[in-house]
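#structure-requests
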Amino acid sequence: MKVIKLSLFLILICLFFTSISIPAYGDEVFIINIQGPINPPVAAFISETLSKAETEKARALLITLDTPGGLDTSMRDIVKSIMDSEIPVIVYVYPSGARAASAGAIILLSAHIAAMAPGTNAGAAHPVAIGSEKADKTMMEKVLKDAEAYIKSIAAKRGRNVEWAAKAVKESASITAKEALDKNVIDIVAENIEELLAKAEGRVVETKKGKIALMFKGKKQTVVEMPFKYRLLSYLSDPNVAYLLMMLGIYGILFEIYSPGAIFPGVIGGISIILALYAFQTIPISFAGAFLILLGILFFILELKVVSHGILGFAGIISIVIGSVMLIDLPKSVLSISWKSILAVAVISALFFFVVLSYAVKAQLAKVKTGREGLIGEVGVAMTPIFDKGKAIIHGELWNCRSDVPIEKGEKVVVKAVEGLILIVNKKEGHA
């Protein structure tokens, strides 16, 4: 009987160890640093790096995280990549003073190893209504329940504190590094990456390929920098940058319309509009806000055409300011447009339309001073008697002239029209 029990015990031990895969991995730990909002370029960068790490059979992908949150769709793309990863993914809220707020908290919970540095915090994952229209109470309840179920499923999958995860969504609960460790929200608190890897050594995590024992001792740390294209796209996805690009594009194109041939404003305006459209694909905007901005610009244009004594111009400024506030109506979100940007655009808009475009309009309405059209209305002196034919000095040049009435030599004449190389002139009024 003892022999049977011993045999069964040995079999169970063998089964346990064979379930932990120790595949032939390389000697590298990939490290990427994510700082700032979670947006499509960040999600693409993490996914691309994770695929590269899997291809090169890295020991793990370590993501140092410091984010105020970001887009729900981008966060879910990142979580999917982590959940579907064939290698361990470590998310580390680092350095001290960093945070994993909102979308960042869910990404932290999804990691195979969740870690925080002392002096960091995580949480506040309550969803915020984004879009062209404000969500009503019923819709927000549905969004809240969906987010709660999502974060609870992730916490349960990783064996973490499901109750706290739900509070992070429902009550915007936030937590310090020490509290997170005590409440089983994270696995490790470490001062730096070296300490983190040392504490993670020997732990067993479950990836898509099964259980894997973490072995980092003596392994190379390879920092993967975000490529320029993702840095640029991430910068353009900033709501303030996108907003300024949109306004710059509108002004550049309008200036080109009012001053054809300037070329540079039109080129810059076109490029800015294209970049702004890309950014607004990643940032849900209010169409009412965009309409008010366009209406404000229309008021500015009418101010140049209609004598309103500044009323239309003032209405344009008010319309642009209100539209800018409504464009991304999230005053406490990372996706909001700062008041500094809004006020700067309002002031520049007023200057642009009242000063720059007024000069352009005046230039268009001004009398032509060159070519044939520039001769009409000019005054000269008859050098010979003029009737069917004659000659006069106009602009310091001797011209062949014709008149409907006789004009004596020495009299002043004014040009009425130009027919080929002959000027049609009249006697200047008030001159004998």
